[in-house]
């Protein structure tokens, strides 16, 4: 496995997340682990460096939140896509989680 292959595998999963749904960094890492290894932090690193062209707002932390720097732009996308949110603004993972 090369670093480029891992990046492509992560981004391919992100591109498959349906409109109005989300997945977690950990779920992506779990889906790729047998073939590539790695964990949620590696997925986060890929998203930070290469995630601009894909729907990055559909990848959230295990508690349904994004890093604060992404909050407002992501919230606009969630509202546009009718992504289920909790009263505090985080994604409602019980209703919105998509597993790769």
Please provide a written account of the structure.
The chain has helices spanning 3-16, 25-36, 40-50, 71-81, 93-96, and strands at residues 23-24, 59-60. The protein is mainly alpha-helical and 100 residues long. It has a two-stranded parallel sheet with strand order 1-2. Helix 1 (3-16) packs across helix 2 (25-36), helix 1 crosses helix 3 and helix 2 crosses helix 3 (40-50). The chain is globular, with a radius of gyration of 13 Å. The two termini are 20 Å apart.
Chain-wise SSE layout:
Layout: H1 3-16, E1 23-24, H2 25-36, H3 40-50, E2 59-60, H4 71-81, H5 93-96
Parallel strand pairs: 1-2
Q: What attributes does this structure have?
A:
mainly alpha, two-stranded parallel ribbon, 100 residues
Order of helices and strands: HEHHEHH
Q: Helix tally?
A: 5
Mean pLDDT: 93
Net shape: globular
Helix amount, in percent?
40-55%
Parts with pLDDT < 50 across at least 5 consecutive residues:
none
Give me the oligomer status.
single chain
Q: How far do the termini sit from each other?
A: 20 Å
Describe the strand arrangement of the main beta sheet, using strand numbers: 1-2
Label the structural class. mainly alpha
The counted number of beta strands is: 2
Specify Rg, calculated over alpha carbons. 13 Å
Q: What proportion strand?
A: under 5%
């Amino acid at each position: 496995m090369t670093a480029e292959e891992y990046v492509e595998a992560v981004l391919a999963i992100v591109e498959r997340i349906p409109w109005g749904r989300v997945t977690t960094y950990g779920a992506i890492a779990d889906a790729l682990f047998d073939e590539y290894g790695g964990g949620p932090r590696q997925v986060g690193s890929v998203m930070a460096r290469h995630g601009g062209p894909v729907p990055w707002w559909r990848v959230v932390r295990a508690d349904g939140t994004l890093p604060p720097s992404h909050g407002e732009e992501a919230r606009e996308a969630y509202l546009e896509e009718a992504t289920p949110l909790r009263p505090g603004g985080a994604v409602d993972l019980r209703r919105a989680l998509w597993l790769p």
